[in-house]
């Protein structure tokens, strides 16, 4: 049986501009604009807003503290899984009192012009701009249009680590998996815009720059303020989760980005699942349908398409007592989101032999750095998945509020399974 994809909810109000019925609430801070392109970025904007709203006392003139009631602009991608998660996150943002403006930023040839044109006035009025992906060409273009005196960069996963290093060393902004390659024609054409954006991201006497991050930050750019993201909002809003005896496995899009060979990746997942008795595989939103179908058929894993970022899914639970991951953002964020629970996060290194011939020269050192700098995680011995899993088989956790793909001939579950019926339900 072929796996079936999750079906995101209806996209009401998906046209350019604010969603119908979602105007700014009383006291909304129209001077703060936040731009996001992924569910994780939106989650981290909510964390930043929560942290700042609780760290500042409202001024005597009645103005709300930074982060309270901001205007959140979603630069919507075309991928349906990402859009579905963004819709769910946008609902949470509205519940927190923020105004959400959904932009069909990639909906055709003229969409970028309509999006930028519609945001120009807001950008010029904004006192503060919060962004989730400084590598994004969209964000870089928008940065050239604002004179905001306060800029905030929130995490876009492990990419933040590379961004901070490049900013500190004055390098051009290039995603880590593309570093070392030659710039393409579009890169050269966009270079002047990127250069202006890079200058805007430098702190000056007239402009402050803050990095709000759960990632380990090494060399801090001069004048930049670094604030730790401890996932306080997530822990306050969700959970604590019910913890099962089993193991869950977290997927990665390293195959889709051309870093890891697909056959090596499938072998590694198979070995980890077998060694630890993992029953569920939480797919990354960018993982291909073909690869996930192969995983379901060849490993017997339940392939789960989360409808929210994994930090929220895990916090909401149920969740396995052990979460297995390859080097990725979650080895830094899940220990924070699950602080105070019995869940153990374990990471398996990427063996250099798994890398593709086209992988960036930076890939190996970057992935090693992701693992070595992770706090409060168990590092599995060795660099191969086979050597990594020497603990005995564990049971599997029960269902989450996520859509699930099944295989036609499922392997029998372990006796310790928290879900005795073996059934998973959709939200």
Can you give a write-up of this model?
The two termini are 22 Å apart. The chain is globular. The strands form two sheets. A seven-stranded parallel beta sheet has the order 3-2-1-4-5-6-7, with helices on both faces. A seven-stranded mixed beta sheet has the order 13-12-11-8-9-10-14, with helices on both faces. The protein has helices at residues 39-55, 80-95, 111-125, 137-143, 159-168, 185-200, 232-237, 262-276, 289-299, 310-316, 330-337, 363-372, 385-388; strands spanning 32-36, 71-75, 99-103, 128-131, 150-154, 208-213, 225-228, 243-250, 280-282, 302-305, 319-325, 344-347, 378-379, 403-405. α1 (39-55) packs parallel to α2, α4 (137-143) crosses α6 (185-200) and α10 (310-316) runs parallel beside α11 (330-337). The protein has 13 helices and 14 strands.
């Amino acid at each position: 049986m072929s796996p079936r994809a999750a079906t995101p909810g209806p996209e009401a109000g998906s046209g350019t501009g604010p969603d119908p019925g979602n105007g700014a609430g009383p006291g909304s801070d129209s001077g703060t604009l936040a731009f996001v392109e992924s569910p994780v970025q939106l989650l981290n904007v909510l964390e930043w807003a929560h942290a700042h709203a609780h760290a500042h006392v409202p001024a005597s003139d009645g103005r709300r503290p930074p982060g309270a009631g901001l205007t959140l602009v979603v630069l919507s991608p075309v991928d349906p899984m990402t859009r579905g998660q963004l819709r769910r996150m946008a609902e949470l943002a509205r519940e927190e009192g923020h105004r959400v403006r959904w932009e069909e930023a990639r909906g055709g040839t003229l969409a970028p012009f309509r999006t930028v044109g519609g945001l120009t006035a807001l950008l010029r009025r904004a006192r503060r701009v919060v962004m989730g992906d400084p590598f994004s060409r969209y964000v870089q273009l928008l940065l050239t249009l604002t004179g905001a005196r306060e800029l905030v960069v929130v995490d876009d996963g492990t990419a933040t680590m590379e961004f901070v290093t490049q900013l500190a060393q004055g390098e051009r902004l290039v995603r880590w998996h593309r570093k070392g390659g030659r710039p393409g024609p579009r890169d050269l054409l966009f270079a002047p815009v990127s250069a202006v954006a890079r200058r805007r991201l430098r702190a000056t006497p007239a402009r402050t720059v803050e990095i709000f991050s759960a990632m380990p930050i090494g060399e801090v750019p001069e004048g930049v303020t670094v604030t730790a993201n401890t996932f306080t909002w997530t822990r306050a809003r969700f959970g604590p989760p019910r913890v099962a005896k089993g193991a869950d496995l977290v997927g990665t899009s390293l195959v889709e980005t051309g870093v890891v060979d697909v056959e090596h990746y499938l072998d590694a997942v198979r070995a980890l699942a077998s060694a630890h008795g993992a029953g569920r595989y939480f797919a990354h939103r960018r993982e291909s349908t073909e690869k996930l179908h192969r995983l379901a058929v060849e490993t017997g894993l339940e392939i789960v398409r989360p409808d929210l970022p994994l930090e929220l899914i895990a916090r909401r639970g149920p969740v396995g007592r052990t979460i297995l991951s390859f080097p990725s953002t979650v080895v830094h964020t899940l220990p924070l989101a699950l602080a105070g629970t019995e869940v153990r996060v374990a990471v398996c290194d990427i063996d250099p032999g798994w890398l593709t011939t086209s992988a960036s020269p930076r890939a190996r050192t970057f992935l090693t750095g992701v693992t070595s700098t992770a706090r409060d995680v168990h590092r599995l011995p060795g660099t191969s998945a086979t050597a990594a899993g020497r603990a005995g088989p564990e049971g599997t956790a029960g269902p989450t509020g996520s859509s699930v793909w099944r295989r036609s001939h499922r392997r029998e579950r372990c006796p310790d399974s928290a879900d005795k019926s073996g059934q998973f339900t959709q939200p």
